[in-house]
Automatic annotation (TrEMBL):
GO terms for biological process: DNA-templated DNA replication; double-strand break repair. Residues 733-940 form the DNA-directed DNA polymerase family A palm domain. Its EC number is 2.7.7.7. Keywords: DNA damage, DNA repair, DNA replication, DNA-binding, DNA-directed DNA polymerase, Exonuclease, Hydrolase, Nuclease, Nucleotidyltransferase, Transferase. This is DNA polymerase I. In addition to polymerase activity, this DNA polymerase exhibits 3'-5' and 5'-3' exonuclease activity. It comes from Nitratireductor aestuarii. The lineage of its organism: Bacteria, Pseudomonadati, Pseudomonadota, Alphaproteobacteria, Hyphomicrobiales. Belongs to the DNA polymerase type-A family. The gene is polA.
Length: 980
């Protein structure tokens, strides 16, 4: 090597895990071999080589090597036995990929270097020293802070994921000390990831201040008694030896007795056939095409290399030999440059997540650094930067909460932590007594801005990140843009912590960044003085909107690795993220509602309520305000002295629905009539009176809004209006559904899972009687009644079947003898004997309940059959009622959650299935618990129903094979009630 040459040293071990984290789980189609990390590694390495060899882009290397850790045991373990002792074993699906990644490196024609007893960082330090002494420059391709001690005038770090170079000024800016003091800084702060002890209570900022004042570690420790802060002084004196040991542990060796010299690292042209042979063996079709084009190789003439893969169970253990043999076309499988390589313990998902969280949360948030983009040229510059980073945080700012009608005030974006901007589009002037003045100057027209942003928002190579993306996606979809690909941090948080913490941006920012974002309420006010966002001035709207995008990007950097660390990537990738555009399109379509039907029903309900009121007054013996809890309580418990009265904290009689239902169950006429009156008046106020106000002025349809992250179990919820709570068990409730109609020439198709939660229960609790009954297509409630009461299925009285049905469904929700007694109108003792007999006939259910509670008490959560976690930390509460509530919820969650996951999978699959069958005109409109509602041309109904039923019934597969068949009832009609 000589002056002017440039050495690239790739931190291969760091690359492995970054590659593993960068892609969702990926397997080779032919045999299911895990290859996600190999794919990420190959793509990252190819891009690095292509960019490095492009003299128009940056530095051109003359020498190149990929450096790996040999094993987890090095000379540092002899110095300190606890060094890296806190690291867990690598993921099972990553272990067989270690050796494949080494062979990938060899297929690229690059030196693959490792040495027993030393870490990759020590080899990198040695090569960097040799290159400097030879007069050359070195670029270390890594984001590892441990390597920053090597930075000098000829050595720099480069992070290709962020396209960021770190030289001396960047080290000083980030850590407050120059590279030569990084060893002392790390000795003081320690490293929780590598289990380097350091000095308790000394963080990076404090360490930098101390080193600036005292010069170096030895001087600081010798003068520690001079420090004024008592706790800091005591810790430095007490842990001086720990600091000195830590310095030895973090100091990289620059004199490793390497075998390959710099002359062995000369970069040579890529051997196209050899690399393509390996890529074909891995079945990387896209990268194969790119390599073939770049190397002018006919890929069709190259056969896949032979690759022998060590089994994962044989490769466990960081010191175990892992042999992989790969041959390029024309080479022998036992000759050439193909040599055995060894596995190693690399950084773990847990440690990366922890490190990323610490790094991101330490970055300051500076509102003065945000940009207000007010012209096309500046916007185009930001678009170009976003393409370079490959990541774009996004937030559409609207002037109302309804994306179907809202005006787009502006769009905020972020391309890196601290690099955020706001693009105002429709902000208006504010006069003293006038809201909604003329449009402010200095804004880009919405159409022009979206023309520039559209290619970026739809660019498959740039990931878009948002919080509650569905709203942004729908707002942009209305403007002809389909955002893809994307991540939603609200849903990532939901997958990670359903039932533990809130998932709104403010809560997430507080939890993970210890930061309180600007308050939207403070910007727009409240009450009569409240304004819409388009009335906020550009200075404050820029600060608020850009901060939102900045926080979203930071949270994504923290939360996305946590999915890997918690081993629940597939829940997010398969159940949550794909549903966003599906739900958004459903909301966009809406459903037709007949105003006239609602108007007539409203009149009918008013008459019914009036008649009931007269009866109530007669039973009460006086007129009073039925809607007043105080007056009603005084009548029931003060005047009439009915049993079961109890007072609330305010001293009033409780007249809750439960209290009235219990009184009505005892046959008391007044409480029964009040319950009926409440139901009718609620139907009137909530639906027949309110629904017309939700009809869109342009589409003439009702567009509900679905929440994907509001329940612990994974069920969707609906609002504005809530179409999931329309009662279906009463005749009056079912009448509401008659107002939901199909347009002329079309039909509504209702597809409803039959007893899906009971079927899931039979599967997870392994109940042979129920499993067989479902397999045989029997009446499950009649079978249960027969098992419990010894009554033949043939000719069974309806009352006996009804009781069995109540028990079947009640068991799923942890019903008590008291609850069952109220539901069936029987004595509590009788209800208790029913439940006892039920468990005797189906002992597997009791076993399931007990094992589920035990699991939840140990782990704090339960799981659905697809791996979704529902957290119930209060299951260990000392309060018996709280503990019992959480136990019931924990028992129900795997059942209800699995059913919710199945219908989510069906929703994700069904649009594609309809399109593949040439039935794109059939549109999915609503999801209501276990039911999907479609709108279809009349002539396609007969074709559509079998396909819809098939997709829904097979939705659990191929991920899970249920021991019971799923059954879907589907029919078409002119209105929702008739179709149901």
């Amino acid at each position: 090597m000589k002056k002017g040459d440039h050495l690239f040293l790739v931190d291969g071990s760091g690359y492995i895990f970054r590659a593993y984290h960068a892609l969702p789980p990926l397997t080779r189609k032919s045999d299911g071999l895990p290859i996600g990390a190999v794919a990420g590694f190959c793509n990252m390495l190819w891009k690095l080589l292509r960019d490095a060899r492009n003299t128009d882009v940056g530095v051109t290397p003359t020498h190149f090597a990929v450096i790996f850790d040999y094993s987890s045991k090095t000379f540092r373990n002899e110095l300190y036995g606890e060094y890296k002792a806190n690291r867990t074993a690598p993921p099972e699906d990553l272990v067989p990929q270690f050796s494949l990644i080494r062979k990938a490196t060899q297929a690229f024609g690059l030196p693959c270097i490792e040495m027993e007893g030393f870490e990759a960082d020590d080899l990198i330090a040695t090569y960097a020293r040799l290159a400097t002494e030879a007069g050359g420059d070195t670029t270390i391709v890594s984001s590892d802070k441990d390597l920053m001690q090597l930075v000098n005038d000829t050595v720099s770090l480069y992070d290709p994921m962020k396209d960021k170079e770190t030289r001396i000024p960047e080290v000083i800016e980030k850590w407050g000390v120059p590279p030569e003091k990084m060893i002392d800084l790390q000795a003081l702060t320690g490293d929780s990831i590598d289990n380097v002890p350091g000095v308790p209570g000394i963080g990076p900022k404090t360490a930098a201040q101390l080193l600036a004042e005292y010069g170096d570690l030895d001087t600081l420790l010798s003068r520690a008694h001079e420090i004024k802060q008592q706790k800091r002084r005591e810790n430095l004196i007490a842990h001086a030896e720990s600091a000195r040991l830590s310095r030895e542990l973090v100091t990289l060796k620059k004199d490793v007795p390497i075998k390959e010299g710099l002359e062995d690292l000369v970069l040579t042209p890529t051997n196209g056939p050899k690399l393509i042979g390996f890529l074909k063996a891995m079945e990387f079709a896209s990268l194969t095409r790119r390599v073939a084009e770049a190397t002018d190789t006919d890929a069709s003439a190259v056969e896949a290399a032979y690759v022998e893969v060590q089994k994962a169970e044989e490769a466990h253990g960081p010191d175990m030999d892992v042999t992989v043999t790969a041959t390029a076309p024309g080479e022998s499988s036992s000759g050439g440059d193909v040599t055995p390589v060894r596995g190693e313990e690399i950084d773990t998902p847990e440690n990366l997540a922890k490190s990323r969280a610490a790094e991101i949360s330490s970055l300051p948030i500076d509102h003065t650094a945000y940009t207000c983009i007010r012209d096309i040229a500046t916007l185009q510059q930001w678009v170009a930067l976003a393409r370079e980073t490959g990541t774009l945080a996004l937030n559409a700012l609207l002037n109302s909460n309804d994306p179907m009608q809202a005006e787009l005030c502006g769009i905020s974006i972020a391309i890196a932590p601290g690099r955020a901007a706001y693009i105002p589009l429709a902000h208006k002037e504010r006069a003293e007594d006038l809201w909604g003045g003329g449009r402010l100057d200095g804004q880009i027209a919405e159409k022009e801005a979206l023309e520039v942003l559209r290619p970026l928002l739809e660019d498959r190579s740039v990931i878009k990140v948002a919080h509650n993306l569905k709203q942004d996606w729908l707002a942009l979809y209305r403007r002809g843009i389909e955002v893809a690909p994307f991540d939603d941090i609200m849903l990532i948080s939901y997958v990670l912590a359903a039932g533990v913490n809130a998932h709104d941006l403010e809560s997430l920012a507080d939890k993970w960044l210890s930061h309180a974002p600007m308050s939207f309420k403070d910007l727009v006010g409240s009450g009569k003085a409240k304004i819409t966002f388009d009335m906020v001035d550009l200075e404050h709207s820029t600060s608020f909107a850009a901060e939102h995008a900045d926080i979203v990007l930071r949270l994504w950097e923290i939360l996305k690795p946590q999915l890997v660390a918690d081993r629940i990537v597939s829940v997010y990738e398969r159940l949550e993220r794909p549903l966003i555009p599906v739900i958004a399109r459903m909301e966009h379509r809406g459903i037709c509602v007949d105003r006239n039907i609602l108007s007539r029903m409203s009149g009918d309900f008013a008459q019914q309520a009036a008649a009931m009121e007269d009866e109530i007054y007669e039973l009460a013996g006086e007129r009073f305000n039925i809607g007043s809890p105080k007056q009603l309580g005084d009548i029931l418990f003060g005047k009439m002295m009915l049993p079961g009265g109890s007072k609330t904290k305010t001293g009033q009689w409780s007249t809750s629905a439960q209290v009235l239902e219990e009184l009505a169950a005892e046959g008391l006429p007044l409480p029964r009539k009040i319950v009926d009156w409440r139901q009718v008046t609620k139907l009137k106020s909530t639906y027949t009176d309110a629904l017309p106000g939700f009809i869109h002025p342009t589409t003439k349809r009702v567009h509900t809004s679905y929440s994907l992250a509001s329940t612990t179990t994974g069920r969707l919820s609906s609002s504005e209006p809530n179409l999931q709570n329309i009662p279906v068990r009463t005749a009056e409730g079912r009448k509401i559904r008659t107002a939901f109609i199909a347009p002329q020439g079309r039909k509504l198709i209702s597809a409803d899972y039959s007893q899906i939660e009971l079927r899931v229960l039979a599967h997870v609790a392994e109940i042979p009687q129920l499993t067989q009954a479902f397999a045989d297509g029997l009446d499950i409630h009649a079978l249960t009644a027969s098992e419990m009461f010894g009554v033949p299925v043939e000719g069974m009285p309806a009352e006996i079947r009804r009781r069995a049905k109540a028990i079947n469904f009640g068991i799923i929700y942890g019903i008590s003898a008291f609850g069952l007694a109220n539901q069936l109108g029987i004595p509590r003792e009788e209800a208790g004997s029913y439940i006892k007999r039920y468990f005797e006939r189906f002992p597997g259910i009791r076993d399931y309940m007990e094992s589920t509670k035990a699991f939840c008490r140990e782990h704090g959560y339960v799981e659905t059959i697809f791996g979704r976690r529902a957290h119930y930390p209060d299951i260990r509460a000392s309060n018996p009622s709280i503990r019992a509530f959480n136990e019931r919820a924990a028992i129900n969650a795997p059942i209800q959650g699995s059913a919710a996951d199945i219908i989510r999978r069906a929703m994700v699959q069904i649009e594609g299935a309809l399109a593949d069958a040439g039935l794109s005109e059939i549109q999915m409109l609503l999801q209501v618990h276990d039911e999907l509602l479609f709108e279809a041309p009349e002539e396609l109904v007969e074709t559509a129903i079998p396909l819809i039923r098939h997709v829904m019934e097979q939705a659990a597969g191929p991920v899970r094979a249920l021991s019971v068949p799923l059954k879907v009832d589907a029919r078409a009609a002119d209105n929702w009630d008739e179709a149901h």
